[in-house]
Amino acid sequence: MTAIETVVKRMRENHEKPAIFWKSKEYSYDEFFDMVDMWIEKLNDYNVGKGTVCGILSDYSPQTCALFFALMNVGAILVPFTRSIEAEVPVFREIAGVQCMFRFTEEDSYTVEKFDNVSQNELVNSFRKKEKPGLIVFSSGSTGTPKGILHDCERVMNKFVVNRPGWRTVLFLMMDHFGGFNTLLSTFAYGGTGICIPERTPESVSRIIEESKATLLPTTPTFLNLLIASKCYQQYMLDSIKLITYGTELMNEATLNNVKKIFPNAVLKQTYGLSELGVLRSKSTEDNSVWLKVGGDGFETKIIDNILWVRSEANMVGYLNAPNPFNEEGWMCTGDEVEVRGDQLRFLGRKSEIINVGGQKVYPVEVESVLLEDENIQEAAVFGVAHPLMGQVVHARVSLYKPEDLLELSTRLRSFCLKRLAKYKVPMRFTIISEEGQHSTRFKKVRLIKDEE
């Protein structure tokens, strides 16, 4: 049997165990596979089969999750989209060559639209010959046009063939992001329960955790900062959470220590992955440590000039609209600078985000961690700005708990930072913004600012 067939067979054996929690109701695995089987019949009616490129515009729901597994069953190529990027969907749809689009409402009803004479990508055409289900996701596009990334779903599912304990998992990471797809597969492959959330706000997530008795929260450092600032944890019982995994960006130690206080029963685990490579297994030395070991079965790592390189059995098939990033031996340069201590790594930041002040390196996360120690700083984003003499200087955008005069704030924060950082690391300029301006729709911190001056 294939990896997908092996995992699905195991999933079907869960019968009355809860598969999905959605709008205060649980659906068993038997009910879930009734939906999957219904979708398989509908897909046949829609002439969707091997190699059909299918867009899904939705968020996690019983029908959406069932459609994912039905599409893999018939060998289609999945292209998930979320409502937060709906304005960009036409561009992504053209890059991917979407032939059939399913659009879901918040009540889980749907419409379907077929497209004729769609121009097809050469890589997709080549992949079709393998007659395997595929997945297309898009990079965030922070450095230019988003890249279309094609994965072989069979390769991705291989990671979940060996059974592990299941969790009641909050489906927080977006389904159009590889990390979200990975979470979806792992939740169901291990017989866990997918907890669907109506909104990704601290209040909504906290309420659903309490109501569903969720045990696993995969999230981002930025969202955890928002949760801390909101104080929602004081209004809800969150003690059911036993594991918090965080990735997609660097975690500073100030946030890590605060999260540990809020979730004293939870193990905190840093994860690492890239859309091109998959999600590596990781092991942190301690809950309050940013040091970890990454790798696991199917992954190899090496360090060249302090930059992490990875080779993966679950590598993407390739980019739809960009050159192949792998060398002849299958290694990919991640661009992540790391510090090494034995077999442990500490991520310092993307090479592109490191600030060079007169030849001295400044890592944004180090400065952000210091700023977050100030009692009035809710969130901080540090970045470099071009300077005619120093090459670059450090600037910071901050959001506040309470209003404060910018001049007084800047003077106070410089003094605060000088007691904890070398002078060249201290921000030359501060800007006050709202908390919403500090993060993207994927709850990742926005650091790189254009035309700041």
UniProtKB/TrEMBL annotation:
- What InterPro entries does the database record attribute to this sequence? AMP-bd_C, AMP-bd_C_sf, AMP-binding_CS, AMP-dep_synth/lig_dom, ANL_N_sf
State the Pfam families in the record.
AMP-binding, AMP-binding_C
Q: Does the keyword Ligase apply?
A: yes
Q: Which residues form the AMP-binding enzyme C-terminal domain?
A: 366-435
**Name of the protein:** Acyl-coenzyme A synthetase/AMP-(Fatty) acid ligase
Which ranges carry the AMP-dependent synthetase/ligase domain? 10-282
Q: Name one GO molecular function term.
A: medium-chain fatty acid-CoA ligase activity
| Keywords, comma-separated and alphabetical | Ligase
> For this chain's UniProt record, which GO biological process terms are given?
fatty acid metabolic process
Regarding protein family, the annotation reads: Belongs to the ATP-dependent AMP-binding enzyme family.
Q: Which domain of life is it from?
A: Bacteria
